[in-house]
Amino acid sequence: MTKTAPAVAARGLTKAYGPVRAVDGVAFTVERGAAIAVLGPNGAGKSTIIHLILGLLTPDRGTVTVLGRTPERAMRAGLLGAMPQEGDLVARLSVRELIGFVRRTYPAPMPLDEVLRIAGLTGVAGRRANRLSGGQAQRVRFALALAGDPDLVVLDEPTAALDVESRRELWTAIRAYVSRGKSVIFSTHYLQEADENADRVLVIAGGRVVADDSAEEIKRLAVGRTVSVDIGNGLAEAVTALPGVIAAQRRGDRVHLRSRDADATVLALARLGAVRNLEVTSGGLEEAFLALTHPEKGVAG
Ligand SMILES: Nc1ncnc2c1ncn2[C@@H]1O[C@H](COP(=O)(O)OP(=O)(O)OP(=O)(O)O)[C@@H](O)[C@H]1O
């Protein structure tokens, strides 16, 4: 069964820190061989979702499986790779020694030369970790995630704090890994990064999935418009099914509908008698993203 299980299956995932519901009923599936972006602004719940997938946090409710196993089992078997967040690499060891050392902790590690090749580190394999550029050091961290020859690698904002060139090199490495039929989940604040590197994009806001689609479809959100209107409780469900609506976000009494056909959506709202403070706004991908994740900020247009 586990041979055909998806890379990740999350169902009803919920996690609170005291009164803060960081993740609130999140469900998604990651097929094998897919690259998935978890996209959202600060505080959306991305890190919490990543930590739940890695088994570093236990959900209050719901389940998450990795390759048909608990995250702990997948991690122990070397099937699930994680990139260490910041933190210094062991300065006295060479890149080759450091990766070699970590490889030996796994039951069926990836061949060392292959790790170096995928991570783009062959040319600096003999160099000490403290003689590396920021971008090279980050690729060493990625190499450490590959050491156990995992089927899934989970990366929490892998390119944060990297310059443009280092970002490009890290993505080249990550794509080399995915091209072997492996899966990647990464979190990011950057729409462009999700667009360029992900097959599917989960847009997270307020601990919920507000959009889950191909990067192509998420981009189409950008050409749509946002229809915002105040509604009563009775209509909350109905408005999400109106013509043109591709995503909906509710904040208190106000609902923000991303629509690929705003005219049809407005007409349908009018038929329902829901026109209080009706507003239609438009904008590009960035605005679409803000509308989905920060509706209170509004959008230009
Ligand atoms: N250890 C914690 N204790 C209390 N609240 C927390 C803790 N960790 C996260 N939170 C809160 O949970 C919510 C989700 O945080 P999380 O770090 O998952 O978001 P994020 O999308 O990864 O944000 P960022 O992009 O800034 O890293 C936020 O409101 C955050 O303040």
UniProtKB/TrEMBL annotation:
Q: How does it sit in the membrane?
A: Peripheral membrane protein
**Annotated coiled-coil segments of the chain:** none
Among InterPro entries, the record links this protein to: AAA+_ATPase, ABC_transporter-like_ATP-bd, ABC_transporter-like_CS, ABC_transporter_ATP-binding, P-loop_NTPase
Question: Cross-referenced Gene3D superfamilies, in alphabetical order?
Answer: P-loop containing nucleotide triphosphate hydrolases
Q: Boundaries of each ABC transporter domain copy?
A: 8-231
Keywords of the record, alphabetical order, are: Antibiotic resistance, ATP-binding, Nucleotide-binding, Transport
Where it mainly occurs, coarsely classed, is membrane
> Please, which domain of life does this record's source organism belong to?
Bacteria
Q: Which PROSITE patterns match?
A: ABC_TRANSPORTER_1, ABC_TRANSPORTER_2
A molecular function GO annotation: ATP binding
Record's subcellular location: Cell membrane
Q: What is this protein called?
A: ABC transporter ATP-binding protein
At the highest ranks, the source species' classification is: Bacteria, Bacillati, Actinomycetota, Actinomycetes, Micromonosporales
